[in-house]
Amino acid sequence: MARYVADKVAERIGARSLPPIYYSCSEEHRDFPQTISVKCRSFLPYLEDVLRSAVEKCGVVVVVVGHGGVWDAVKLISEQLNYELGPRVLPVNIWAIASPRDHAGSDETSIYLAIGGSLVGELVEICEGDISLFGKKRVGEFSKTGVVGCLKPGEVSAERGRTMLELVVEKIVERFRQFTSLRYIS
């Protein structure tokens, strides 16, 4: 999802989209067999090196974050680099803009379909977990499936996902224009 959004933003602002960092802090999902995670204390120096190098090569970098678990790390490193180098790194969190009601529920599934994803089987209604527990407990402690909130088949559609994605892309482009105007204020 983040890659899709980054590519669309890059098209609109006339920039290039760099490959994503696939493995990051995802300790909250460690209980699920498909999760590969690195500790945040290991990830932070790597992220700083990647962003510093990207700034050296590109001038300004928009970091599109599609995984909430890594947001604090990205925000921290972005702020440190901006204090040091001036406004060069704009971190954006897709989920803060899209405001999904759940995790892996109707909203995220709609977005997944909108970017070309496909369903493996029939959707079944799942409502479990408490979204307010993110950051306090591992997801496996309050959700057996990884869905936190509700996945309701009647609410899922690629069109709904496209609408959400378009809003996200527009907001990021707007933030980018505001951010780059800061660079020229003395």
Automatic annotation (TrEMBL):
It comes from the Archaea. Keywords: Hydrolase, Metal-binding, Zinc. GO terms for molecular function: hydrolase activity, acting on carbon-nitrogen (but not peptide) bonds, in linear amides; metal ion binding. InterPro entries: Creatininase-like_sf, Creatininase/forma_Hydrolase. This is Creatininase. PANTHER family: 2-AMINO-5-FORMYLAMINO-6-RIBOSYLAMINOPYRIMIDIN-4(3H)-ONE 5'-MONOPHOSPHATE DEFORMYLASE, 3-DEHYDRO-SCYLLO-INOSOSE HYDROLASE. GO terms for biological process: riboflavin biosynthetic process. The keyword Zinc applies. SUPFAM superfamilies: Creatininase. Transmembrane segments: none annotated. Gene3D superfamilies: Creatininase. Pfam families: Creatininase. Its cofactor is Zn(2+).
